[in-house]
Design a protein that fits this description.
Radius of gyration: 19 Å
Mean pLDDT: 90
Bound molecules: S-adenosylmethionine, iron/sulfur cluster
CATH class: Alpha Beta
Number of strands: 13
Shape: globular
Number of helices: 10
CATH superfamily: Aldolase class I
Number of domains: 1
CATH architecture: Alpha-Beta Barrel
CATH topology: TIM Barrel
Largest sheet: 13 strands, mixed
Strand order of the largest sheet: 1-13-12-11-2-3-4-5-6-7-10-9-8
Order of helices and strands: EEHEHEHEHHEHEHEEEEEEHHH
């Protein structure tokens, strides 16, 4: 469902949806482009957006300001791969300034390929935490999953990020049966040895893929946890980083192991977030099409922040209750994760 933005709604706390959920977290995709082609995220030959359809860095900064004025406490920058966008450091600096105006956390999700070069700049701009995707510790397998990625480069990026002194680094691993499900213990051990958190993610059916059958490659969070419990002693915790991960503490370690389980454990009930695609579409749910065209508002009424804020407030009325991901058949959502902003 697409609604033309603009009509104000009367509510005292502006970003509250029909189900009483307060939205205080936005994930902003700054590009649909990427230097990897992960098999679960992209098809081999991707058609990327023409540049004119992607929000400019100035428009992205303006969006960030509007969201923070509306009470958003956490901004996650994502993509595509955010760090391949030229001059993106300017955007991080602009958004970092919002910490003086109510933004509690500026964070980033990255594939790590450019971290060696950018980690220190990001830290200086005020990025508090990083999520770094890492699906395998075996170079050839890493290459097969990402199609073009170089493991060594990512590992060097992780090292530089550790030295840069972020509050916390977390690894994200999408686990696919017969691709990397046999590596969950090694990945967890790597995270623990390095003092990092790690989240294991069930693949979500976003976009049509030719690489594999998603139902066949499904490997549940429960199966991963059972594998891990053969080696580690896991204790559930109520700790949260504001996202959908359910965390466990590992005895004898400061690290946490998390599970993001869109199939086996719905995480919609306490959803506190919205997304903005690289095209400036405000997506009210990862697993539904409900959206509002904020690029139209930004371009039709440049410098009218109040109008932009009203459009965001009005969008809360169409935030759906939850996703309807299914394992079999065609995906309901045809946009790839790289468009959505993971
Ligand atoms: N390029 C960055 C990266 O890979 O971290 C940021 C964007 S990526 C779309 C964000 C996260 O979404 C990554 O952790 C990636 O593994 C995950 N992801 C991508 N496609 C997915 C899918 N179909 N199901 C579950 N997670 C997915
Ligand atoms: Fe690129 Fe991230 Fe998608 Fe992999 S998951 S193709 S790194 S956007």
């Amino acid at each position: 469902m697409h609604v033309r933005a603009g009509s104000p709604v009367s509510t005292t706390t502006p970003l509250v949806d029909r189900f009483g959920r307060q939205v205080n977290y936005v994930r902003i995709s700054v590009t649909d482009r990427c230097d990897f082609r992960c098999v679960y995220c992209m098809s081999e030959r991707m058609h990327f957006l023409p540049r004119a359809r992607v929000l400019t860095l100035e428009e992205l900064a303006e969006l960030g300001r509007a969201f923070v004025e509306l009470g958003i406490r956490k901004i996650r920058i994502t993509g595509g791969e955010p760090l391949v966008r030229s001059n993106v450091s300017w955007l991080f600096q602009e958004l970092g300034r919002l910490r003086a105006h109510g933004l509690a956390e500026l964070v980033l999700t990255t594939n790590g390929s450019q971290l060696e070069r950018w980690a220190v700049t990001l830290k200086e701009a005020g990025v508090a935490r990083l999520n770094i995707s890492l699906d395998s510790l075996k170079p050839e397998r890493f290459r097969r999953i990402t199609r073009i990625g170089e493991l060594e480069k990512v590992l060097r990026g992780i090292q530089v990020a550790q030295a840069a002194g972020f509050e916390r680094l977390k690894l994200n691993a999408v686990i696919l049966k017969h691709r990397n499900h046999d590596e969950v213990i090694d990945l967890a051990r790597f995270a623990l040895d390095q003092g990092l958190d790690i989240s294991f993610i069930e693949e979500m059916p976003l976009g049509v893929l030719s690489d594999h059958d998603r139902a066949e490659s499904y490997y549940s969070s429960d199966a991963i946890r059972a594998d891990l419990e053969k080696v580690f002693s896991l204790t559930p915790t109520t700790e949260s980083t504001g996202g959908p991960s359910r965390y466990y503490r590992v005895s004898g370690s400061g690290s946490r192991i998390g599970f993001i389980s869109p199939h086996s454990h719905h995480f919609c009930g306490d959803c506190n977030r919205v997304r903005v695609s690289a095209e400036g579409r405000l997506l009210l749910c990862l697993g539904q099409e409900h959206s509002v065209d904020l690029r139209h508002v930004l371009r039709a009424h440049p410098s009218d922040r109040e109008r932009l804020k009203q459009a965001i407030i009005a969008a809360m009325a169409i935030k759906p209750h939850g996703h309807e991901f299914q394992l079999g058949g065609q995906p309901v959502i045809l946009r790839h994760m790289s468009h959505t902003g993971g």
